[in-house]
Amino acid sequence: MNDTAISLRLGAWWEANARDLPWRFGRATPWGVLVSEVMSQQTQMSRVVPYWTDWMERWPDARALAEAPKAEVITAWGRLGYPRRALRLQECARVVAEDYADKLPRTYDELTALPGIGDYTASAVMSFAFGERIAVIDTNIRRVLSRVFLGVESRGGATSPAERALANRMLPKDEILGCDADVADNAGSAEHVVNSTIRGGKRSRLHRGERPSVTWNQSVMELGAVICTAKSPLCDTCPIADDCAFLKAGRPGLGERRTRPRQRFQGTDRQVRGLVLAALRELPAGATLPREDADKLWKDQIQLAACIASLDDDGLIEILDGGLRLPS
DNA sequence: GTCCGGATTT
DNA sequence: AAATCAGGAC
């Protein structure tokens, strides 16, 4: 089975089985796609959906987010985790609004230069929002490509040059499926989907009109998320099981730990920081948490003080004479 | 390589 | 209790 056949089979599976996430299928602006990707960093999609929906209704574009009070942004981030993502997203919004006239730049280099946007998110926006041909590499794609084409589990840590080369080698060429230039130029843009829906009537809302590289990225990532999972891959229902080197090899080392054991959460600074921030989010808007109340949040006053200082360093809180509050 | 949240699953 | 999750900054 050649590579083109695999991508076609995966694409068909994608079209029939893709989760109906609200930022997919051309329903979101490029900015909305970027927001969904930042929220999804190290966070399950099912948890992201309600946050994203409320967020985009409240701040539909970069300029709106840029002008929001920082305390509101932190509070709206709620319990998504890694609240520094919220601050970086707002910083990103400021840059987009001021330096790019509220229009997300369309090159990888400009995107990775934005706060909170690294290799994965920049590539994902280029592919999913702009329809450009670029290899997207996340934990799902690393796991799937390594299993299917190398027959082994991917190792943890930073993406290796070999993994990057594999992702680039397997990324379908856009001319293979006869994508015409007009479609290719507009693939992925919300405007294109709206227009083609009006013109096309019963036209599929899924991957038709997307470049093969975009469908490939989407379908490989989706396969890793729902079928080719880390611990218990559902090989019985996998659309490319017949082509999988990992399955042929007897799934050697299935679910083998890919990275060092995670730091336990209980008792860590992350837990303490989370407690402090949660207490501040509970307050009425603009209110201050009195020092004596803050001191009760954690027994170890040394650790608590260090965490309050680090939250201040991050710009997530403000330290006043009488207590703490979310930054204005 | 380490730190940074918190929900969910096993 | 431990692992996992559409990572990024340092």
Automatic annotation (TrEMBL):
SUPFAM superfamilies, alphabetized? DNA-glycosylase
Q: Where is the HhH-GPD domain?
A: 39-182
**Keywords on record:** 4Fe-4S, DNA damage, DNA repair, Glycosidase, Hydrolase, Iron, Iron-sulfur, Metal-binding
Q: Which PROSITE patterns match?
A: ENDONUCLEASE_III_1 (PS00764)
Q: Which Pfam family, just one, is annotated for this protein?
A: HhH-GPD
Q: Which reaction does it catalyse?
A: Hydrolyzes free adenine bases from 7,8-dihydro-8-oxoguanine:adenine mismatched double-stranded DNA, leaving an apurinic site
- Catalytic EC class: hydrolase
Regarding protein family, the annotation reads:
Belongs to the Nth/MutY family.
Gene3D superfamilies, per database record: Helix-hairpin-Helix base-excision DNA repair enzymes (C-terminal), Hypothetical protein, domain 2
Name of the protein: Adenine DNA glycosylase
Task: Say yes or no: keyword Metal-binding present.
Answer: yes
Which cofactors is this protein said to need?
A: [4Fe-4S] cluster
InterPro entries named in the record: DNA_glycosylase, Endonuclease3_FeS-loop_motif, Endouclease-III_FeS-bd_BS, HhH-GPD_domain, HhH_base_excis_C, HhH_motif, MIG/MutY
Which GO terms fall under biological process for this protein? base-excision repair; mismatch repair
Q: What is its EC number?
A: 3.2.2.31
According to the UniProt entry, its GO molecular function terms are: 4 iron, 4 sulfur cluster binding; 8-oxo-7,8-dihydroguanine DNA N-glycosylase activity; adenine/guanine mispair binding; metal ion binding; oxidized purine DNA binding; purine-specific mismatch base pair DNA N-glycosylase activity
The UniProt record lists the keyword Plastid: no
